[in-house]
Structures are given as C-alpha cells and as structure tokens.
Amino acid sequence: MTDQDSKPEENPVSFILRRGKIPKSLQMLQSNMREVMSPYTALKLRESGKDKLREFLLGASILHVSHLVLFSATDKSN
Description:
Blueprint lengths: L13 E6 L4 H13 L16 H10 L4 E6 L6
Parallel strand pairs: 1-2
C-alpha cells in the first residue's frame, strides 16, 4: 500500500504552533519544523495573538491531528 492509498487517519497529522512572542531564531525553527513534518502538517497555518489553544484543539479533533508541537520563549530567552 502506498502513502497515497492510505487513509488520512493512518498517517500522523500535526499542528506546529507558537505561544506568545518568540525570537526570530525560534520562528525559523518553527518554519523548518513544518517543512520537516510535511506533507502531514499545516505549512501555512495562520496564527494570531488572539488565538487560543482551545480553538486549535477543536480544529485538531476535526482534522484527526495526532501531534501538537508548541514553540514558546521564556523571559530570559528574549
């Protein structure tokens, strides 16, 4: 069975998100991580400061997301 013939539920699907403001280095890491996890991740997932984790979790359950990766920064790292 090839990847194209498999059902979406069989492949691990992921969301890669940021929480709060993160430095440029982490933004680049987040972008690279999305590319590494493709094609089963949302490459152009739009995030804003108003988004809540709960909203992503609701969307994740509908899309059968199995992995959620969060990037955040501490006060010392900024």
